[in-house]
Amino acid sequence: MTGGWVESYPEDVRAILAAGHDLGNHSENHKNMSQISDEECQEEIKKVHTKVQELTGYEMCLFRPPYGDYDNHVIKNVQKCGYYPIQWSIDSLDWKDYGADDIVRRVVESDKLNNGAIILMHNGAKYTADALDAVITGLQEKGYEIVPISQLIYKDKYHMKADGTQVSGE
């Protein structure tokens, strides 16, 4: 959820939550989080958090930095706001508008597809909605179960590798 999206589509925010999905924070203004101060970084997170909480009563705890732009500075600030930093492992490149078939192929045939994979897709991309059923079916046919990220990630005793994946342990 970005601040502008929450403001523009409040009923969709409520519907996503009502359908049992996680709501995740994606910043107020979609800035490169590694390039802003601690104070501004935390404000980018807190503003959206407040908007969603006031709209739905839901306490978000997942944050995906815009552009996948993160470093220790970002992770520290995300955690200071009570959030878990999230990074994808498979990029559908749906935002490049190559078509639904391309999205399906990039996800279902990815060499990074494994248990725990996090797939990046965008709600505003031109072909994502057209590809979604085939992506889900293709993943299920390969034996994968789709779960909310909050059920997938480590929440205690983990660290993040440079590629954004979590590793269990200190």
Summarize the structure.
The chain is mainly alpha-helical.
Q: Which SSEs are present, and which pair or pack?
A:
Layout: H1 3-8, H2 10-18, H3 38-56, E1 62-63, H4 72-80, E2 84-85, E3 90-91, H5 100-108, E4 119-120, H6 128-141, H7 149-152, E5 158-160, E6 166-168
Parallel strand pairs: 1-2, 3-4
Antiparallel strand pairs: 5-6
Helix pairs in contact: 3-4, 5-6
User: How much helicity do the residues have?
Assistant: 40-55%
Query: What gap, in angstroms, lies between the N and C termini?
Result: 30 Å
- Total discrete domains: 2
CATH first level of the largest domain: Alpha Beta
Q: Quickly give the structural class.
A: mainly alpha
- Helix run count: 7
> How would you sum up the global shape?
globular
How many distinct beta strands?
6
CATH structural architecture of the largest domain = Alpha-Beta Barrel
Strand arrangement across the biggest beta sheet: 1-2
Task: List SSEs in N-to-C order.
Answer: HHHEHEEHEHHEE
pLDDT < 50 stretches: none
Radius of gyration: 16 Å
Biggest sheet details: 2 strands, parallel
Percent of residues in beta strands? 5-15%
